[in-house]
Design goal:
Layout: H1 17-25, E1 29-34, H2 71-85, E2 90-95, H3 105-116, E3 124-128, H4 135-144, E4 150-157, H5 161-166, H6 173-184, E5 189-196, H7 203-213, E6 220-225, E7 228-229, H8 233-240, H9 248-261, E8 267-270, E9 280-282, H10 289-302
Parallel strand pairs: 1-2, 2-3, 3-4, 4-5, 5-6, 6-8
Antiparallel strand pairs: 7-9
Helix pairs in contact: 3-4, 7-9, 9-10
């Protein structure tokens, strides 16, 4: 069966990150994870304490073994790992831990400017929150796009404010949309993070999140399954009053339906998460990343469907 999806050079029926990078740069491009020493407004008491209930004490930077090192030392050490797998490629410094635009502009400038001068750096990726993007910061980042592409990775998880309150997100869907509309006026690219399987949410709620965002101005998306990590507020909640997590089969079917609702131009950076095995409580099936992706591909071929097929 011929693949009807145009943003693909293999059998994938969604706009993979690999397709985006290879068609733009013509070579292997690897993300190098970094911890720039920021915090978060709902950790330091500005909005709340403890962070989002699913987030670890390291602010999603758990896979960075060198987070206590100087930023450029982190970059070199993590880059060496990538070099061993894919020599002669390009790199994307990925400021992953916590909220990397939450702080004085001078700190953000000091974080980014050494990497803007590196020929081996293709792009910059910055994890942040929609409520930590003042106009001054946006203007500075937009200026950097004249040198290299800048991606902001903004956590949404769900378009439901009821869910947002339950996970201690501390911003509304309106706040999120406001940030996207302000960023639309710039050359900054945006990747939205969505999480399936949050407590109290139904399959329809998770589909509604994709419907709610599909017409908004953003260029990329990461879709994750909720996984419960040790020593988080969610782990304690689950221990005291266990809630049902969606099954592997439900997740695969859900992601296919979500992809059908998504604009075909949107780059799909992830369809799974990467928890550390030693920190994971459940579900264990999220550790089998390759087989999950393979089964998403199989179901899309079986149903003869593709990203954007149901997009209106």
């Amino acid at each position: 069966m011929e693949n009807p999806f145009r943003y693909s050079f293999n059998e994938k029926r969604y706009h993979t990150y690999n397709y985006y990078l290879k068609t733009r740069y013509g070579c292997k491009v690897s993300k190098v994870i970094l911890d720039a020493g920021f915090t978060c407004p709902n950790r330091d008491g500005t909005k709340a304490y403890g962070g989002c209930i699913f987030c670890s004490a390291r602010g999603s930077g758990d896979s960075n073994s060198y987070s206590s090192d100087d930023l450029l030392v982190q970059y070199r050490k993590n880059k060496e790992i990538m070099d061993g797998k894919w020599p002669n490629g390009l790199y994307i410094p990925y400021f992953q831990a916590y909220t990397n635009t939450y702080g004085p502009l001078e700190k953000i400038e000091g974080m980014l400017e050494p990497f803007m001068k590196m020929d081996e750096v293709a792009e910059i990726a910055i994890a942040t929150r929609c409520d930590c993007l003042p106009d001054e910061t946006i203007s500075y980042l937009n200026g950097l796009t004249k040198i290299k592409p800048i991606w902001l990775e903004i956590g949404l998880q769900s378009s439901s404010d009821k869910t947002g309150e339950a996970i201690n997100r501390q911003y509304s869907f309106e706040d999120f949309k406001d940030a996207l509309y302000r960023l639309e006026k710039t050359d900054i690219d945006v990747c939205v993070h969505v999480m399936n399987g949050l407590p109290q949410e139904t399959i329809e709620d998770m589909l509604d999140t994709i419907k709610d965002i599909s017409h908004l101005p953003f260029e990329g998306i990461k879709i994750h399954m909720l996984h419960i990590i040790r020593d988080t507020a969610m782990a304690k909640m689950h221990e005291e009053k266990p809630f049902n997590l969606i099954t592997r089969e439900q997740y695969i079917e859900l992601v296919v339906r979500q992809l059908e609702l998504l604009r075909p131009e949107v780059v799909v950076e992830r369809l799974t998460g990467d928890p550390l095995k030693e920190d994971l409580i459940e579900p264990e099936w999220v550790l089998n990343k390759t087989t999950i992706l393979n089964d998403i591909d199989k179901l899309m071929r079986k149903l003869d469907t593709w990203q954007g097929k149901s997009y209106e």
